[in-house]
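Quick one: structure for this chain?
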Amino acid sequence: MQQEDISFYDWQQKYSTHEECMSYIHSEKWPNGFICPHCENNHGYYSPKRHYYECSTCHKQTSIISGTLFENTRIPLTKWFWAIYWISSDKGGISALRLSKLIGCTWRTAYRILKILRKAMGDRDSKYKLSGIIELDDAFVGGKKTGKRGRGAGGKTSVVIACETRGQRPGFIAMQAVESVNKKTIEQFTSDHIDASSIVNTDAFRANVGVASFATHIPKVTPADMVDEWLPSVHVAIANLKRFLLGTFHGISQHFVQEYLNEFCYRFNRRFWEDQIPNRLLKLCIILKPIKSVEQEFSA
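Got it. Here's what it folds into:
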């Protein structure tokens, strides 16, 4: 669904106070007026100081932010909204340290905000499957260690990557961090992310036979100097991913790889609507069920 293009200046003007943020959430959550989530009655009494409705029938109290990603948060909504803009507007991403300085909070708070938003991004993209002609390959990301490089290197995380081909440019992508690349993980990835009617091109790595269980599989023995001719789109995605991880975050812990993959894929898949991404992500935060409250995340 198309959304409004918006600059950060306009974003700040539009969501400069807690009340303005609450008003926007209210309009998105109940576009036709309050509806009680408990009994579906459409009449209630509003408390402007506490920002909740009391149903006139069952008398249950419902906060405007209940049932959204902001439920139970103690962080001002203005900071949430500005964080949403920063994480979604720059294709290079934003580090927790940089975000903490921009919105005026501790590094820990900024990191937890980013963590929750990345989970929301992953949840959204998990609802879609790639289709058409698809290229599939694997890559390795993480900290550098001496010794073997490439497949089997220590201290790195394996990532399975699939990319639709759209003529001369990549289409939508999906990425999944796995413990190891084998037939079972390839089967699971294909089942989760690729439509059964698709044609999937891969190299001849033996684990890729798992693709054939769920889609049409075309493997090809590919010399190293010709791999970009057979799988050009997926290698563009891999190169962009590694620049993203090294450029902004200077490497990442292997325990949190999937979070960063979620963020990268979400923006990459919407790169042709770049100016709309902040509004898309904001609406997602309102319609998405709470993943965890910030306070729960702090104690985890």
